[in-house]
Amino acid sequence: MTTDQATAPPSPGEARTAPAPTAPRRSRRARWIALALVGPLALLIAVLATRPPASTRAADSPLVGKAAPDVVATTIDGAKFRLDSPPGRWVLVNFFATWCVACRREHPELIRFQERHQAVGDVEVVGVVYDDSVEAVRQFRAERGGRWPMLSDPGGKVALDFGVSGVPESFLIGPDGVIVAKLVGGVRANDLDLLLQQANTSQPQKGRT
Questions:
Q1: Are 172 and 133 in contact (CB under 8 A)?
Q2: Which residues pair with 59 in a beta bridge?
Q3: Does residue 65 sit within a domain?
Q4: What percent of the chain has pLDDT above 90?
Q5: What's the CA gap between 158 and 73, in Å, rounded?
Q6: Is residue 208, in this structure, part of any structural domain at all?
Q7: What is the pTM for the complete model shown?
Q8: Any domain includes 3
């Protein structure tokens, strides 16, 4: 091959067309739609995720957006307990222990939250004992109050099903049985009410299309 042949431009028949743009337009559109649908609830959870340790903090969990695990256990008073699925109302499942400083700190906030919603009956608080004795929890309740079911979990099955690695951890479950948020490091009543308000806004209303 001569130099002229090597540098000669390709003939019209040999010309190649430029590749088409490969920007994933549909994927971009889907992402924007998803963001729009999530709305204020996701924004609130993002805010809670950046809170300091003394405040209510949201955390990632593979269970968020999925049906809550079934809960069948015995309370510290010996009664049988079963969390219906779907429960038909909001449920806050709180994993705690009496030896946990943050659990002791959040306990008055849980009492305040539970008392606010007791008359309406739109929220149920459920405690799950984490690596602690029933006797210690009974004494804790007698001294500090708390009128909601506190479940014994001697084999750690409930904690394992929820993926709990430490306490305190709480899970907000919607009336449809889907987990809305995971909260770590203790909760505050006002933050829980705000999260509940935003979650109620995001829930589809019956009778609407």
A1: no
A2: 182
A3: yes
A4: 60
A5: 8
A6: no
A7: 0.73
A8: no
Over residues 7-36, mean pLDDT: 50
Strand partners, 92: 125, 172
- CA–CA gap between residue 138 and residue 13 (Å, rounded): 88
Q: What does residue 126 show for φ and ψ, rounded to 5 degrees?
A: -130, 125
30: CATH = 3.40.30.10
Q: Look at residue 7 and tell me if it is in a domain.
A: no
Number of domains comprising the chain = 1
In whole angstroms, give the CA distance from residue 87 to residue 197: 18
Q: Tell how far CA 71 is from the center of its chain.
A: 16
Strand-pair partners of 206: none
pLDDT at 40 over 90: no
**94-135 confidence digits (pLDDT tens):** 999 999 999 999 999 999 999 999 989 999 999 999 999 999
Q: Give the span between the Cα atoms of 185 and 53, in whole angstroms.
A: 6
DSSP 3-state of 46: helix
Instruction: Give me the domain span that covers residue 62.
Output: 18-202
Ramachandran class of 93: left when φ > 0, alpha when ψ lies in -120 to 50, beta otherwise: beta
